[in-house]
Amino acid sequence: MSQFIVGLTGGIGSGKTTVANLFAAQGIDIIDADIIAREVVAPSSEGLNEIVNHFGTEVLLDKGGLDRQALREKIFRNPEERQWLNQCLHPKIRQRMIELVKKSSSIYTLLVVPLLFENGLDSLVDRTLVIDITEEQQVNRTAHRDNSSTEIIKNIIKSQMSRDDRLSKADDVISNQGERQQLEQAVIALHRKYLTLSEKS
Prior knowledge:
Shape: globular
Number of strands: 5
GO molecular function: ATP binding; dephospho-CoA kinase activity
Pfam family, one: CoaE
Keywords: ATP-binding, Coenzyme A biosynthesis, Cytoplasm, Kinase, Nucleotide-binding, Transferase
Low-confidence stretches: none
Pathway: Cofactor biosynthesis; coenzyme A biosynthesis; CoA from (R)-pantothenate: step 5/5
Mean pLDDT: 93
InterPro entries: Depp_CoAkinase, P-loop_NTPase
Order of helices and strands: EHEHHHHEEHHHEH
CATH architecture of the largest domain: 3-Layer(aba) Sandwich
Radius of gyration: 18 Å
Helix content: 40-55%
């Protein structure tokens, strides 16, 4: 892939979608791993068929779609099942990402991947951007957004790379702990930087 690619990541509740939308407003193509992850388990997809063959029909909704809550409960306390699911879906997600990057027409492309470093997908990008907030903010924002329990959110945070490790791997960092205006200014500054880097690559 000759195109300049920026990998955007951050812990749960850090504001990845908000930041991605600000880059999109600058005319940049966004490829979101979460959206692709839903596509690869859509009804009648190969991914969904493999999941049903492995876990049984109790992970299906009445209309034939994936019951995410039922699946989450099956893998939440079982690392081996979680590993099986990752090995099933990650190659499909990665392949679809590569296909979409090739179709991208903006001067650089933003790849939004929650587990960019954990799943080794930083190997696909030229530069990494981490959206950073405190763990306390992660818990508060996610609880407000998803109505999830604090226990579940903290378990998700524990399953992700630590804040310090993530920051140590980042080429660029945006702090999302302040006002919206500061966030917009940070995105515009990085957008200009990425335009320059794209032209050089």
